[in-house]
Design goal:
Layout (H helix, E strand, L loop, with lengths): L1 H17 L4 E5 L6 E3 L2 E3 L1 H12 L5 E5 L2 H10 L3 E7 L8 E9 L3 E5 L10 H4 L4 E4 L3 H8 L5 E4 L2 H9 L6 E3 L1 H11 L6 E6 L6 E7 L4 H16 L2 H6 L4
């Protein structure tokens, strides 16, 4: 009996060790998540790391990749936490959702001097080239709506530079993204113009775990996040967001 008990304890410990894997938080370059002095920083990163600490996870790492790589990791690898990811019907059962960080609204932007670009409806926008990132919610939405003139880039800033260099006609951004990118490349944002709002793709941006992540990890993270939210921590860290 004692031997059996010892074996049971050892097996339990082994399972515990297995589920004590390092959480890998992944994201892309945005105004809320970016590299600073060689480390992933930004208000959304600060919020995610605070949540993991408050949830009691001593072992975690945060990495910044092109969106397609972060998305693929979150789809296929265990113990991966991705942010900022739009919660859509198509993604609902692909991830385990752990908390809404912010709501976002996307617009199609053009250069103001491009008088040849006239858009009064989503259908009108199909006539123009649009910068997009593969697996991004904006790309998936436009593709599903029948857009065929989508020009792929690895990161949002690449799309923005293509717009400035007139290699694409339009880019889908939120207002804070546009403002931040203008500052980064020293471009006058007054020379940009919103021409259409993508209401159907505007959504909440979340942090979410890969499907194979144990429920206990997700539950602890969600509980910590909700407590921070109740304390006003999200607004304090993020300030005003779009």
């Amino acid at each position: 009996m004692k031997a059996s008990t010892n074996l049971l304890i050892m097996a339990t410990l082994m399972v515990s060790v297995t589920h004590a894997a390092t959480i890998h938080a992944v994201t892309e370059a945005t105004p809320y998540t970016y590299l600073k002095d060689g480390k992933v920083a930004g208000p959304a990163t600060e919020l995610v790391e605070l949540t993991l600490k408050r949830a009691g996870f001593a072992s975690y790492q945060t990495s910044l990749y092109p969106w397609a790589r972060s998305y693929d990791m979150a789809l296929h690898e265990p113990d991966v936490l991705i942010c900022l990811i739009a919660r859509t019907a198509a993604r609902e059962n692909q991830f385990k959702w752990a908390g809404e960080i912010m709501k976002i609204q996307y617009h199609l932007f053009k250069l103001k001097d491009r008088q040849d670009i006239v858009i009064k409806s989503l259908e009108d926008a199909k006539k123009y080239t649009i910068g997009a990132m593969r697996d991004d919610v904006r790309y998936r939405y436009l593709e599903a709506q029948g857009f065929t003139r989508l020009v792929m880039s690895a990161e949002s800033l690449d799309n923005f530079n293509k717009l400035l260099n007139r290699r694409v006609d339009l880019v889908p951004l939120n207002e804070r993204e546009a403002s931040t990118m203008c500052e980064e490349v020293h471009f006058d944002c007054a020379k940009l113009e919103q021409v259409f709002t993508l209401h159907e793709v505007s959504a909440g941006l979340y942090m979410a775990y890969s499907k194979s992540t144990p429920d206990s990890i997700v539950e602890r993270t969600t509980a910590a996040f909700e407590k921070i939210k109740a304390e006003g921590g999200i607004r304090k860290i993020l300030g005003d967001n779009p």
